[in-house]
Amino acid sequence: MRVIKNSLITNTVADLCQKAAYTLPQDIIKSLNTTYRQEKGLAKEIIKLTLENAKIANKGIFPLCQDTGTAVLFVEIGQQLQIDGSLDKALQDGIKKGFKENYLRKSIVSEPLFERKNTKTNTPAIIHYKIVNGNKLKINLMLKGGGAENKSQIKMFNPTASKQEIIDFILSVVNDAGASACPPFIIGIGLGGNFETAPMLAKKALLRSKQNKNLNYKKLEQEILTKINKTNIGPQGFGGKITALKVYIEYAPCHIASLPCAVNICCHSSRHAGAVL
Question: Is 67 among the domain residues?
Fold first, then answer.
């Protein structure tokens, strides 16, 4: 039985906070460079500024965005692994440490409706746990801004819904988001499962950097991306050829009577980082 100390987990998560907040993933940089070559006029200038912002943030002084987001952790725990102490505490302490040491904005309030008092630590983080084979601990951190998150939606379709109905719903979510969610977007889509599973799948999809391995869903991702980029919302909503950089779909088995579809919108500042211990 392999043992991992809490301090290692906490320090790793703190490091991931720094990496996610300041360094845009290379696949997003590559997509933005491609977009820069495709766009013209104001849209091209906006992408140029976006790329300059990424270069400045990468120096580690200013984060990619002032909204340093809700911390969302996807954690895979090997069955042959033992944690020396509380795993949840180690992860939450890592978020506290990472946000404090890197001077990241604390955006979490203790309850949603009445006092809305800031916790001043950016915790509690949202944590999704999964038990897997092996003796390793895999941690993926996403820093999810509030503006794009607010524009995400779920719809419970009947199983008789056509592919086109699903696509139309996704397009309507993107159109509703418009400039408010800071395009160009990365679109995470969750299909199947149930009411709580589909949104989690949509969020998990945002961690991907490659198209679906399933050929049907790979084609669907490309079809949706092509249609989104015909909306002419464009970079920051000023019009242009590229409204979304990526579309990723995660799917799961579901009940014979339902077909859940969740759309999680991510702004161009797609901030995530991972580590395996």
Answer: yes
Q: Does residue 190 lie in a domain region? A: yes
CA 213 vs CA 22, 27, 118, 204, 210: distances in Å: 30, 17, 41, 15, 9
Number of domains within the chain: 2
Q: How confident is the model at residue 1 (pLDDT cuts 50, 70, 90)?
A: confident
Residues 139 and 151 in one domain: no
Q: How far apart are CA 72 and CA 147, in angstroms?
A: 15
Instruction: Kindly report the average pLDDT of the chain as a whole number.
Output: 97
Average pLDDT over residues 161-175: 98
Q: Structure tokens of 6? A: 């809490």
Answer whether 21's CB lies under 8 Å from 104's CB: yes
**Cα–Cα distance for residue pair 129/139, rounded to 1 Å:** 10
Where does a domain end: 112, 144, 176?
A: 144
Judgement on whether residues 151 and 256 belong to the same structural domain of the protein? yes
